Amino acid sequence: MSKSKQNSSSVLSVKEPWLAVNLSLFFPGIGQLYTGNVAKGCFLILIQLGLYGLSIGLIFSSSGNIILGSLVLVITLCLSVWTIFDSYQCAENVNRLVLKRRKKRVKDPWLAVFVSRLIPGVGHLYMNKVWLSILLFTFFVSSLLVDLVPILLKALIAYHVYIESPIGRKAKKRNILIVCIFSVILSMLIAIQFLFIKSYIAEPYLVFTDSMTPTLQSGDRVLVDKYIYRLHSPQRGDIVLFFPTATLQKQNFQEILIKRVIGLPGEEVEIQGGRVYINHQPLEENYIKNTVKSQSQPITIPPNSYLVLGDNRTTSYDSLDWGLVPRPNIRGKISKRLWPLQRMGEIR
Predict the structure, then answer these.
(1) What does residue 325 show for φ and ψ, rounded to 5 degrees?
(2) Residue 261 has pLDDT above 50, yes or no
(3) Residue 101 pLDDT
(4) Is 259 known to be catalytic?
(5) Tell me, what DSSP letter sits at residue 301?
(6) 1, 89, 206, 226: which could form a disulfide with 332 (CB 3.0–4.6 Å)?
(7) Are 122 and 115 in contact (CB under 8 A)?
């Protein structure tokens, strides 16, 4: 009787290594908590939160160092990958004596769930369900065209591959249901988070013209700070992203434009001999490529409007051609260059 209880206790103490891996995919450290390594799990969770917060602050804040932030992010991702392997090892250590008794030929359903969450259909291939694997993978690829369908489909495939396991695990279906539900919820939360960041905080943008050379070149990928102008108004020298004005829309301009703010509300701007004068004072511009636009009539800028020019005055089609930019049209400030790597960093 006591021997039976002892065996029962050993079985109950078994930790699923691939369940620990799947939990680590939700957030580093959770897999360690599952295996009973509470101190390590809590430490990893706090470290990850701190590193993610630091990297986001360095990358997205206007005063942050994007290169340092990217390095911290890479370190954070490497640590995340390590925690996945470590969670597996933690479970193996807990189960060392019990797992030795298992037959090596048995297919592990949690491994099937893990690979299914990465690439739907591969878990079924691991379970020797070849044709079903091909069908599900094909359906998943075709479903990428519809929002949210891939998220739901991946969870459904993960659940199906688990219950298709030849091992009798009827009593443990609750675990896979919880994993699938959390997988859907987490994926939706991540999507909502990215949508929020893109709409209100920052988003990448691809430069497709040469009107801002040498500062920005066609093909550069930059970061647009959308939050900064909630704190203060655009400043002279800011490179801004803005929607086409009414005049430009009449000329069939639909693409978002990039220019540099030169004149602020209430100022008088004119160009004489290729130089910009603000309220009759010459403006120092060490960023311009040339000064072809050599003359313009004085322009008094009304409230809530801005005069913008391109750094490449030869080719730039800007405020001297089509007028001023209303404040509501300005979408954000170009703060940093993300690509190419050799020119990554803050933009001035």
Answers:
(1) -105, 120
(2) yes
(3) 56
(4) yes
(5) P
(6) 226
(7) yes
Average pLDDT of the chain?
A: 83
How many Å from the N-terminal Cα to the C-terminal Cα in the chain? 78
Task: Compute the average pLDDT of residues 311-332.
Answer: 91
Helix (H, G, I), strand (E, B) or coil at 280: coil
Q: Running DSSP on this structure, what letter comes out for residue 295? A: B
Burial (0-12, 13-18, 19+ Cβ within 10 Å), 309: buried
pLDDT value for 111? 83
**Whether 283 contacts 261, CB under 8 Å:** no
d(CA 261, CA 88): 54
Q: Encoding tokens for residue 34?
A: 């599952």
Is there a contact between 347 and 238 (Cβ–Cβ < 8 Å)? no
Query: Dihedrals φ, ψ of 280, to 5°?
Result: 75, 10
Catalytic residue among 87, 211, 305, 335: 211
* φ/ψ (deg, to 5) at 191: -65, -40
User: In 3-state terms, what secondary structure has residue 333?
Assistant: strand
Task: Please say whether the beta carbons of 334 and 229 come within 8 A.
Answer: no
Position 209, amino acid: T
207-346 belongs to which homologous superfamily? Answer: Umud Fragment, subunit A (2.10.109.10)
Residue 303: the pLDDT is 95
Q: How confident is the model at residue 242 (pLDDT cuts 50, 70, 90)?
A: very high
Average pLDDT of span 235-248:
94
CA 61 to CA 178: how far, in whole Å?
37
pLDDT digits (tens, 9 = 90+) for 137-172: 777 776 665 566 677 667 777 777 777 666 555 546
Catalytic residue among 15, 129, 259, 333: 259
Burial classification of residue 267, based on how many CB atoms lie within 10 Å of its CB (0-12 exposed, 13-18 middle, 19 or more buried):
middle
Enumerate the domain spans of the chain: 15-200, 207-346
